[in-house]
Structure prediction request, 235 residues.
Amino acid sequence: MVVGKVIVYGGRGALGANVVNYFKLHNYWVGVIDLANVDEADTSIIVSKEADWSTQAATVMKGLEEALGDEKLDAIINVAGGWAGGNAAHKDFLKNCELMWSQSVWSSTITAQAAAKFLKEGGFVSLPGAQPAMKGTPGMIGYGIAKAAVHQLTKSLGEENSGLPSGATAVAILPITLDTPMNRKWMSGADFSTWTSLDYISALLLKWTKGNDRPKSGCLIQLITKDNKTELVME
Prediction:
């Protein structure tokens, strides 16, 4: 028996796949938006990375209309994005800035537009922030400015007249480092006890989707993990 419907934007990544499987385990209909099909999902809306911002948005809106009909979503969870480093002198500085902007900001604004149209009253939206972008990020400027824009978008969605349905909650989760297989591969000497577990985040998102202990709309939620225990710092 399906208890609700959610969309996961970025459902092919490590965190996205975990969220998809976690919600499926708890009897949710789960759709994904990504660059390719996700077999575990109930439907996949595929966007082309070669398409521009407005074309990607149009593809998502059409896909959601076809998948949902007259039904509405309980939540839209955006865990899309990537990482690129580099300061202002880096040879690929502008290229990396453009990549980070398209991966994080395009998907987040499309999520906001989709939420305004397809979310239930009292629904839930989560956007992909980053704790390091709360301050300067000289070694990864493109990443920092894109995530800072997502933070601002979240705060805007939390205000009145944002366009979201009545009673909806929008937040951004701001991890430092996620405990993923790729991170373990590339940072094998790191202290894994300070990395945030994917299962922890999925459980948190499910709880908030259900309306339990939700933060205030517009909240930026830092995930601070120490000794394998994660504390939520909200602002």
